[in-house]
Every structure is written in structure tokens, then in C-alpha cells.
Design a protein that fits this description.
It is globular and about 45 Å long. The strands form two sheets. Strands 2-1-5-4 form a four-stranded antiparallel β-sheet. It has a two-stranded antiparallel ribbon with strand order 3-6. It is built from seven helices and six strands. It is of the alpha+beta class. The protein has one domain: Ribonuclease Rh, Chain A, CATH 3.90.730. A hairpin with a 5-residue loop joins β4 and β5. The N terminus is likely disordered. It starts with a helix and ends with a strand. It binds 2-acetamido-2-deoxy-beta-D-glucopyranose. The site of 2-acetamido-2-deoxy-beta-D-glucopyranose has 3 residues, from loops.
Length: 227
């Protein structure tokens, strides 16, 4: 009896320590972030196409980012589980098309995927291993199809200007949830449609209403550049 009474508090202590350390890997939901390549490329710093060629004229995956309901996010959660391309060989050809790097100098996009996995993916590794992390992002892109949502509302990447409200409404009525639109500025300093944030549940599969939106400046009317 005495022994049990001595051990019980110790067990509680160990369990608490386990819960606390596991919290480093916790998160509440994901932002699934897609970028418009035309807006990435027409800034004053420009862009570089991948070594394997110009990506399609479509939204490009930026990342699947674990986030907290309070707006902050965990990052670089597990240095012991670095990006390993051999785990996603079957996805590489789809990733090259759908998750292309436009950063300079030109690359085969591998360093982009590596950065996203190491910084963001490792923070959800208890739920999605490296393969499911990339596979889920690819399926989210095809199920959301933001470009066709916009096209069906006659919002086209033709260099024209569209109201932010009409862009948000077109995506909301298409996917059933309100997105967050991030703007950047073209070389002349005009706001344009840069990234679309869509919220995804803890399992990385179902779309949800965003628990919290990012912040940032955007005009009430923004450009949708060609690519
Ligand atoms: C947000 O929530 C997380 C998880 O609960 C916590 O670790 C972090 O410190 C919080 N950040 C802020 C700015 O409140």
C-alpha cells in the first residue's frame, strides 16, 4: 500500500510530462494555401520557372500549414524526421505540376517541398506522415479547384480588376466555406490576388469554416494577372 502511494504521484508526474512534451506537436487545424503564379511572378523581384518548365496556368500549392485557433502556429517541430524524397517518389510527378517552386534560382522544386515538410509538415506528423501530408495536399487542390470556382463566376486571370468581395463570394459559394485572400503588389504597386487560404480540419481532409483568419492588406478591388 505504501509503495502504491509512493508510486502514484510519480506516475501522474510522468504522464503530465508526456502530455506537455506532446503539446509541441499539437495544432488545431490547417490552412491549405494556394498561390496564383501570375501574382508571384509579376512583382518587382520576379520569379524563375522550375528547371522542368513553366507550370500550368493554375493555382499552385504553397503549403498545408498546421495552425492554432489563437492565430499563431507551430513550426520546425521535429528535426529527427527531415524531408525524405524517397517516401514520396510516387507523388513527384504530380507535385512538380501542382506544387511547383517559382523561386529564383530555378530548381526542380525539391527544396520547396523540403522546406514545407520540415517547417510545417513535421508539426502534424502524428496525424499525417510525410506521404499522407503531400498526398492530402494534392487531393485538397483537386477537390477545391479554386480556378474553376472563379471562372464560373466570370473572374478570369486576364489582367483585369475584380472586387475582393466578388472573389470571396465566388469561392465561398463553390466550396461552402469563406476563404482568406492574401494580396501582394505588382511591380507598379497595385494590389493583386496572390494567395487563397482555405481551412481544413485536424485530420487534414475535410474543409471547415476558418477558426481564425490571417491578417493583411488588400484593396477592395484587386488585379488577377495572367500567367
Ligand atoms: C496559442 O496556442 C498555443 C497552443 O495552445 C500555445 O502554445 C501558444 O503559446 C499560444 N500563442 C499565443 C500567442 O497565445
Amino acid at each position: 500500500m505504501k509503495l502504491i502511494m509512493a508510486i502514484a504521484p510519480l506516475a501522474v508526474l510522468c504522464f503530465s510530462a508526456f502530455v506537455l512534451s506532446a503539446q509541441g506537436f499539437a495544432y488545431d487545424f490547417f490552412y491549405f494555401v494556394q498561390q496564383w503564379p501570375g501574382s508571384y511572378c509579376d512583382t518587382s523581384s520576379s520569379c524563375c520557372y522550375p528547371t522542368y518548365g513553366k507550370p500550368p496556368s493554375n493555382f499552385d500549392i504553397h503549403g498545408l500549414w498546421p495552425n492554432y485557433n489563437n492565430g499563431s502556429y507551430p513550426s520546425n517541430c521535429d528535426p529527427n524526421n527531415p524531408f525524405d524524397i524517397s517516401k514520396i517518389q510516387d507523388l513527384v510527378s504530380s507535385l512538380r505540376t501542382n506544387w511547383a517552386s517559382l523561386a529564383c534560382p530555378s530548381s526542380d522544386s525539391t527544396s520547396f517541398w523540403q522546406h514545407e515538410w520540415n517547417k510545417h509538415g513535421t508539426c502534424s506528423e502524428t496525424v499525417l506522415n510525410e506521404h499522407s501530408y503531400f498526398q492530402n495536399a494534392l487531393s485538397l487542390k483537386s477537390t477545391t479547384n479554386v480556378l474553376s470556382c472563379l471562372q464560373s463566376a466570370s473572374i478570369l486571370p486576364n489582367g483585369g480588376s475584380y472586387t475582393l468581395t466578388s472573389i470571396k463570394n465566388a469561392i465561398t459559394s463553390c466550396i461552402g466555406h469563406t476563404p482568406w485572400i492574401e494580396c501582394n503588389k505588382d511591380a507598379s504597386g497595385r494590389y493583386q490576388l496572390y494567395q487563397v487560404y482555405i481551412c481544413v480540419d485536424h485530420s487534414g481532409t475535410a474543409l471547415i469554416n476558418c477558426p481564425v483568419f490571417p491578417t493583411g492588406a488588400c484593396g477592395s478591388s484587386i488585379l488577377f494577372p495572367t500567367f
